[in-house]
Amino acid sequence: MLSIGAVASAGAAGSYFGKDDYYASADHPPSAWLGDGADKLGLEGAVDRQTFQHVLEGYIPGEERRLGFEQAGEWKHRAGWDLTFSAPKSVSIMAQVAGDTRLIDAHDKAVAAAMAVAEKEVLATQAKREGAVISERTGSLVAASFRHDLSRNQDPQLHTHVVVVNMTLTDRGWRSVDSKPFYDAKMMLGQTYRQALAIEVRRLGYDVEAKQDGTFEIKGLDAGTQKVFSSRRAEIEAKLDAMGGRENASAADAAKATLATRRRKGIITRDDARAIWRGALTPAQNQTLDGLHAKAVSRARDGAARAVDSTRSDAATTVLREAVAILSERDAAFSKDRTLELANRIAVGRADRGDIANALDRAIRSGDLLGKQVVEADRSARADIAKEGLTTARQQRVERAMLEHEAKGRGAVARLANDRVATAIIAGAERIAEAHGHRWTDDQRAATHGLLTSRNRVHAVQGLAGTAKTTTVLATYAREAGRAGKDVRALAPTASAARTLGDALGKKAATVERLLTDVRFGKNPHQGNRFSRSEQVWIVDEASLLSSRQLRDLFKAAESEKARIVLVGDVRQLGSVEAGYGFGQLQQAGMPTERLEQIVRQTTDPLRRAVEQAAIGQAAASMDHFVRTPGALTVAKDPAERHETIARQYLVLTPTERATTIIVDPSRAGRDAITAQIRNGLIHEGALGRERLDATRLDAKGLTIAEKKQAMNYTAGDVVQFQRDLRFGGQTLPRGTPVTVIGVSQSDGTVTLAAAGGQPLNWSPKQKGARSAEVFTQKSTDLREGDRIVWTRNDRQQGLANGDTGRIAGLDAASRSATVAFDNGKTLQLTLDDH
């Protein structure tokens, strides 16, 4: 919807005065000067070629001075930047094919709205302050807009080139423009344009269908009609497929495909173009266009604009509430920037940028949102920086309760051992370890002593990975707690992690959520009755993954069940999926904590130091170890070269080495590219079978509960499964039944679902079922004998947990089934056509 590129030269200015200006009439002039700077230079009305080229060359009208500098006898000056705003395809079709030229005015207004924001909030020049170069806002734009109407394939494509001239007025006179802020603001300016356009389109009597990515289309225009006029897009996608596929394509790939398929624009008259377009449609499609146009005109006459404008303030309040619900589900605090970015994306068709800003001000004044500084990644700075942030009153209450429960439990339980007994217990454990060739560290001794003598209901162990926490500290503590008659349980946020801890300690295992559910309903999952009144000990691994809400509920449950808790984790590792930095906050608030910093997993001093430095965030120092070790580090700046190198180095490993090798890439596209190259190599060497079966993989969309309540986040082809029975009218959909999304209606917030062999079901996710829904996209994949797979859902019936791994042991093409041998010893036969 918005692209940005540098203008090659002032001499290329004529390209903006092309002859495809379809609506070059008095009512719709194709060019205009924009900005306060243009006004100050006396530039107004239509853009003439000579003046345009003059200012692009750096000449300031009315002054003899020219921006830029001379170098080797040649004048150096960057001409400017082209911001291209493109209307949604449905808007172009209704404006140019259906003939509703009101939409051209709507597009022009939206472009003007976006550029007004660019002038006020983005436009800047570079200035020196105390020896440092900074970006200084100027608010004085000189720009020329050129509206064009055709794609290079002569499809209807309403778009405007706004050429930002490289000059801006400051209190020191005219200066050159700092281009970086424009590139940083690209997404924001594109969203501002879409919001303004969607509001204008609704004011003209149309309904719009908003999409999850912040785009929209006019409702009622079928996909078939849009496809007729999307030949340019089809060419680019075909080129991407030829280059290796759309799914793995990067932005650079898309740019290459666009250039490779670019053709010269032809010349066509207005009447000829419309006749060709009308002829490309069926009578029914033409009738639909005319009907939409007539209905919109009628609704506009009946006051559509007043109806839209009267609801914008309330709609902005609702949108902001939805955005905060999404953000607060995963983060206790979030920046104003993120809040506004998400709210503006959701608001398309309902409110504009100004409406959202006003709603945020009201929420802060009323106390619904509270100020709180946050640290977030900043794309422009390429670093984590402190920002003005927000939190909710509800989250603040949760965090306060979590901290109060922990503080209340200090000194509330009897210790397992006194100092003398604890020292003897540790000495005995050390002798056993030494008999197996392992020596305890001072950290391990101190942590074990601290736990055994603790009188706190909640006690933490903060330790780096590789410090042998489980086999020394936790194993000794769990054994002594069991000897003292305590009921010891191994807990973790995930089933696989809980089971790993339980196996290591020889204790019963469960997820934290499973335990909380059982406590809530008074059941003991291991004894089939109510919880025992004897004191329990809950050892919780990966505690940094627990949210503030989960920790609060866990502490409350511990009080009711007379349990003591050992929280084990590392604040420097992954945080919780839900909101809250609970483990870190508790430590900052003084929670009794044992610390293990001495790594024992790595057996050489240089490697151990490298791992320790990486663990505390000293990446450069950590990499220095590998730089100084011949052959330990390979650097490839080009992504394609890097992917190929990683795949090649993996393939030369032995099967044993491969089994202990982990490949990490920061992007999904990179991961898929590396995987594809490795699989090709494995097929070639025979590690994977030659025969393949095509299958469909379900990838979780990762929606929050708040996002699942919004119809805009569903797409035809998505698969939904509910974790409880759900009634639709007189029909009950059993839990776990996969249903496919076959339609989405934004206007009434409904999603149409279809079960295999069943009647379509109209579901309103905002009203019911969203909390228990899992939403997936369908991805095509192929399976071969020897493929490794990961199970990503708990399945009690099959005895499988999230994270279980296995290998394809056989394929049967006739029944379209695969035999999977899991690493835990289970073997299952899966039918590939089942979800």
How does this structure look, described?
The chain is an alpha+beta fold and about 850 residues long. The chain is built from 28 helices and 36 strands. The strands form 11 sheets. The protein has a 6-stranded parallel β-sheet with strand order 21-20-22-23-19-24, sandwiched between helices. It has a 6-stranded antiparallel β-sheet with strand order 25-32-26-29-30-31, with no helix packed on it. Helix 4 (about 100-120) packs antiparallel against helix 6 (about 185-205), helix 8 crosses helix 9 (about 250-260) and helix 16 crosses helix 17. The longest helix has 25 residues, at about 305-330.
What's the helix and strand layout?
Blueprint: E1 2-6, E2 31-34, H1 36-40, H2 49-56, E3 69-71, E4 74-76, E5 80-86, H3 89-97, H4 102-122, E6 124-129, E7 132-137, E8 143-150, E9 156-165, E10 168-170, E11 173-175, H5 180-184, H6 186-203, E12 208-210, E13 216-218, H7 223-228, H8 231-242, H9 251-260, H10 270-280, H11 283-301, H12 304-328, E14 333-335, H13 336-346, H14 353-366, E15 369-371, E16 374-378, E17 383-387, E18 389-392, H15 393-408, H16 419-435, H17 442-452, E19 458-463, H18 469-483, E20 487-492, H19 495-505, E21 508-511, H20 512-520, E22 536-540, H21 548-560, E23 563-569, H22 582-588, E24 593-596, H23 605-615, H24 619-627, H25 639-651, H26 655-659, H27 668-685, E25 692-700, H28 705-708, E26 719-722, E27 726-728, E28 731-733, E29 739-745, E30 750-755, E31 761-763, E32 773-784, E33 788-790, E34 805-812, E35 817-822, E36 827-831
Helix pairs in contact: 4-6, 6-12, 8-9, 12-13, 12-14, 15-21, 16-17, 17-18, 20-21, 23-24, 25-27
